[in-house]
Every structure is written in C-alpha cells, then in structure tokens.
C-alpha cells in the first residue's frame, strides 16, 4: 500500500488518502468525485446525488454525471427530470415539444393534446313560456348536455351545453292553482270558525240552562212552604133533615 493511502478510513471509504479523500468504497456504496474549488475529493454514498446516475461494476460502483439539460437521470441517455426551460419527452429534454404534443408548464413535460368531449343531448323539455306550460300558444323548449372531458391548453374548446328552439302547443287555460288553493284555505278556516262558533254557542246554552236550573232549585229551597187549604166539605155543619 502506498504510504499516502490509508485503510483505516471513515465515511464508508475502503481506502483513502489525506489529499484526495476516498479512493475506493465499501461494498454497495457509490464512489463520486465532489469538486471543492479547484480540488476534487472522493466520497462514498449509499445513492447518487441529484444530477448523477449510478453504475455498478464488479470492482467499483460509480456515480456519473447526467447531461447538462437533465436535473435527474436514469442513465446518461435517459433523463427523468429536466432543468428549467426544458420539457421532458421519452427520456429527453427538449426546448420545444414535437407536433401533436403540448408543453405542460406544471409538470414540465410534453403531453398529448386533449380535446373537449361532451355527452349526448338530453330530450327536449316541455314547451314553456315564462315558466308556465299553459296559457299560451307559442313558447320555447330546451335541451342540455354535460362536459365529460375538459380540453387541455391546445385542445379544441367545448361546445355550447344548452340549446333552445321555438315550439307551438295547443292553447289551454291554466288552472288557478293559487286562487283555488287560497279559496280552499279560506273555506277551511271559515268551516273551522263556524264549528268553533257553534261549539261556543252550545257551551253557552248549556251553561245558561244549568244556571237557570240551579236558580230554580235555590228558589224552591228558600221559599216557605204553603199550608194546605182545609177541605170545604169537612168544615160545613151537618144539615138537620129531621125538620
């Protein structure tokens, strides 16, 4: 072993030197050179840092630098994330997306153009005018549909979601639901009022009759008893028929 090479290293190094840091790594660790000013120092890491990708060899595992436009990569020719100003497409970083694709500024990727999709039209609604379905001859009917897929930035815009057209119906009179309901309500109240009035009158009549009966009973109790008149036939003297 070279005098400047030590085997009692720290930080995952198998061999190291005071000037160059790690020279080799322990098994399964990756060797990478870090630049400090004008000097490069070898370090051993469990995974490669951002901007590097790892390669394993029988004698050593190394971290190699990605391309200049890649922020992270799987291999040198396959990027997984691009640096600012570039869009990822099939492992490559492009300044402009190919035809048929659009740049997604949120994910910084080239994605397929998505066009708007709408559902089928609903059946036409009943013919109405000012919210009513009676009392007119000409009105309008409408139908609607829903958006099932919103478009991307370069996709075709969505169509109208509602349509209206003129319609003709056979004129018919509107039932005065409100007035009829009001009349029914008034009749019900009047009926209840009449019933209540009759009930009060009956109660009042019963009270008067009970009061009169009680008054008669009291008068009878307080009035002195009349003596019986003597029988006139008993008071008459017997007539002498002998003369």
TrEMBL record:
Gene3D superfamilies: Hormone Receptor, Insulin-like Growth Factor Receptor 1, Chain A, domain 2, Thrombospondin type-1 (TSP1) repeat. Keywords: Disulfide bond, Glycoprotein, Heparin-binding, Repeat, Secreted, Sensory transduction, Signal, Wnt signaling pathway. Residues 11-110 form the R-spondin Fu-CRD domain. Residues 116-170 form the Spondin-like TSP1 domain. Its main location: secreted. It is found in: Secreted. One of its GO terms (molecular function) is heparin binding. It comes from the Eukaryota. It holds the Pfam family TSP1_spondin. One of its GO terms (cellular component) is extracellular region. Residues 175-220 have a biased composition (Basic and acidic residues). The keyword Lipoprotein does not apply. GO terms for biological process: positive regulation of non-canonical Wnt signaling pathway; Wnt signaling pathway. PROSITE patterns: TSP1. Residues 169-243 are annotated as: Disordered. Coiled coil: none annotated. Activator of the canonical Wnt signaling pathway by acting as a ligand for LGR4-6 receptors, which acts as a key regulator of angiogenesis. Upon binding to LGR4-6 (LGR4, LGR5 or LGR6), LGR4-6 associate with phosphorylated LRP6 and frizzled receptors that are activated by extracellular Wnt receptors, triggering the canonical Wnt signaling pathway to increase expression of target genes. Also regulates the canonical Wnt/beta-catenin-dependent pathway and non-canonical Wnt signaling by acting as an inhibitor of ZNRF3, an important regulator of the Wnt signaling pathway. Belongs to the R-spondin family. Interacts with the extracellular domain of FZD8 and LRP6. It however does not form a ternary complex with FZD8 and LRP6. Interacts with WNT1. Binds heparin. Interacts with LGR4, LGR5 and LGR6. This is R-spondin-3. It comes from Eolophus roseicapilla (Galah cockatoo).
